[in-house]
């Protein structure tokens, strides 16, 4: 018969459990935090009806991810396809897929920007210009 632990021995495990919990929570939050920090200050510019607008890049990637996730849910609801866990009945696709869609959009955006920058060098006869050129200071 296994002997029961005294309540005091359980208290000794509390710091270990807190460290484990903190490590797991930080690992789950690492990608979104790194994502926001990497894109801090960058913006996507777009035109609607002749008016020019600006939106933070991280917000645009997350919104695109949300709309793709909604489209995925509509597709599975209308039986365009089903995931193995939806064979018994339809339910929402897991919210964790939002991160997957946002990552896909981010990688696609970066790859297209890299290809377009290279095209500018190859076919444009000039330097790759991903960001606007820096302004030169006047000598005083």
From TrEMBL:
InterPro entries to which the protein is assigned, alphabetical: DUF817
Transmembrane helix: is it a keyword of this entry?
yes
Q: Which residues cross the membrane?
A: 20-46, 58-78, 98-115
Pfam families associated with the record: DUF817 (PF05675)
Q: What are the record keywords, sorted? A: Membrane, Transmembrane, Transmembrane helix
This chain belongs to the protein called Uncharacterized protein
Source organism per entry reads: Actinomyces glycerinitolerans
